Amino acid sequence: MQVSQYLGIPAVVVIFVYIIAKTFQGKKRKRSAKPGTVVLHQFAPTELCVSASPPCLKLETFLRMTKIPYENEYGLKFSKKGKIPWIEFNGQEIADSNFCIQFLKKEFKVDIDSHLNANEKAIARTVRTMLEENTYWTLVYYRFFTPSFAERAREILFGHLIMPIKYLVYYMIKRKVKKDLWSHGIGRHSEQEVYGIAERDLLAVSEILGQKKFLFGEKPCLADVAVFAFVCGATLECPQSPFAELTKSKAQNLQKHAQRMKELYFPDWDDIISKKPKSS
């Protein structure tokens, strides 16, 4: 007799929901981080990228640029806002990558945009907001609704879970993502329209970058970090994607920019992805 026949479908659903809740809740444990050290909660690296998540890679790059001491805590433990990444610092919890950066700028008195003038700061914010609030959703669309990548997406996020759980969790997350995409607006478009939006966004960034080392000259700013994080997540992690094809043809300077940032702030990139710690 199957478990579902013995307990009934509702009971089985309750059991699955309980297991899933425990999976995402994570173990309550105190960190041994030294006072003044940031604990960065994020997804584990993959074999291709330090982080497949642009917000996670952006936040870790910011920490490295500013030389703020930090430790990684890899896993699927979400913040109180239901988001990853998030940080702990001296007993405080801060969620959302942008709010984390605002907090760290104030706490450590750092500003990687200090060399920009008012006009450049306005352009930088516009670029960052476009990538994070618009272009980002085209990447989410690709990862969850491109059949050739869907299996990889499941393994990246939930590969460490036991067989029935990872499929159920992925199915539930995919349903939520579909609703999120529809609410945002991206999910109401055809595939061709979605990737057309992504192309126009990335070509706009490519035009601003031009032949410069960074968006505004010789020194990177927070917008450069956002560009780097998106390009890595969209091309290194998704080498067959329309994003990757674009950076090989019409927007090659974005790929060169990402390589430049990687060499500057992640000289240990290959070591990190070769070790590839598992999510807890």
UniProtKB/TrEMBL annotation:
Record keywords, A-Z: Membrane, Transmembrane, Transmembrane helix
PANTHER family from the UniProt entry: FAILED AXON CONNECTIONS-RELATED, METAXIN RELATED
Gene assigned in the entry: Faxc
Pfam families the record matches: GST_C_6, GST_N_4
Record-annotated membrane-spanning stretches: 6-24
The keyword Membrane appears for this protein: yes
Annotated organism of origin: Stylophora pistillata (Smooth cauliflower coral)
GO terms under cellular component: cytoplasm
Keyword Repeat listed: no
Family: Belongs to the FAX family.
Name of the protein in question: Failed axon connections-like
InterPro entries named among the record's database cross-references: FAX/IsoI-like, Glutathione-S-Trfase_C_sf, Glutathione_S-Trfase, Metaxin_GST, Mito_Protein_Transport_Metaxin, Thioredoxin-like_fold, Thioredoxin-like_sf
Superkingdom of this protein's organism: Eukaryota
Domain Metaxin glutathione S-transferase: start-end pairs: 198-261
Domain (Thioredoxin-like fold): residue spans on this chain: 54-147
